Amino acid sequence: MWSTGREVAAGDVVIVWQTRELVQPLLITPGKDFNSKFGHYRHSDLVGIPYGSRVDSRNGRGFIHILRPTPELWTMALPHRTQILYLADIAFITSWLDIRRGSRVIEAGTGSGSFSHSVARTVGPSGRLYSYEFHEGRAEKAREEFIRHGMQDIVTLTHRNVCKDGFTVENSADAVFLDLPAPWDAVVHAKKALRKDRPARICCFSPCMEQVMRAVSALNEAGFTDITMYETLLRPHEVQQFPTPLPLSHVIDKLKDMEKFREEKRLRQIANHKRKREDAEFSEPDKRARTDELNAGDQNSLQAPLITVREEDDANEVEAQMVSLSKVCHEVRGHTSYLTFARLVPFMPETLESAAQAPPLTDN
User: Is 257 annotated as a binding residue?
Assistant: First the structure.
C-alpha cells in the first residue's frame, strides 16, 4: 500500500498536514502547484524530501508537513462520497471480527473506502478483502483509488447489489461486514459466504435502532448466536500542566489573614462613625480639620493590603512544582451508528450423527 520509499517521489500520494482540522491527500505531479491559505508550493519542490518534513511556503505565508499515508491518516483526509467509518469504530470492528493477517473478509458497502484501507493493511498480502458496492459511480472511483494505492492484489471490488444477487464467494469468508441500508436482506447471503469448518463472525453497521431490531431478527432466524450490540463514542482528553495545589494549612492561614483584615476594617469604620458624631460638637474650623483627618484615614484604609502574605509563602509558591492533569474536551464526537455483532458456529459432523442415532423421546 502506497510508497515505501524514504523520500517523496513523483507519482506518490502524500498527506498534506496543515492543521488538525485541515488534512488532505495530494498526488505529486511535477509541474503542478498546491495553493492554500498557508502559502504556495510547487510539486517539484516536494520531490526528494523525506517523509515527515516541514516545508515552508514560497511566499512566506506559512508551512505544511508532508506525511506518508496510513489508513488512519487516509480516514482523516479522504474525499467523502458517503458517510464513513471513523477510527474508533474501525478498531473495534476489526478486533471483534478477529480480522488478522491472512484473513478473508467480505465488505458490503465500499462507500468512500475508509474501512477498506484499514482491513487491507490488516489482512496483508496473504489475505483477501472482497468489497461490494451497488452504486456504479462510487465503485469506479473506489477501484481507481485502490489501484493508485497499490491495493489491487489484496482487494477485489465488485459492482453488485448483494441484497438481491448475493456474494460471489461461498463457504470461504472468515468475517462479513455489512454497511447497508437494509442489512437484514443480506444476512442469508452472508451465511452462505461464511466458512463452515470453524466459527465465523458478522457485523452490521446501522444508524438507527429500528434497523438494529430488524437485523437482530434476521440473524436469529439465520441461526447466528452471541448476538450483541455496541455503540462506540470517542472522548478525547486534553492534558495540561498546572501548579501543585497548595497545602490545606496554607489556605487556612490565608483565610485567617482575610478575616483579620475584615475585622480591622470593621473597627476602623466604627471609629470613623464615632468621630463623625463628635464633629457636631465642634466649631466650623475645628470641624474642617477633623474632616481632613478622617479623609486621610480613609485613604490609608483603602491602601491596606487585602491579604498579608509571609515571605516564606512567596518562596514556596515560586518553588511549586507543575503537575499534569487531564480533562475531557468540550467537543466530543457523538453517535455515528450501532454495531451489531454475531457468530456463526458450525455443527460438527459428529454432533449431527449423534443426534440422528439418538432414540426418539417417548412419553412414559
Answer: no
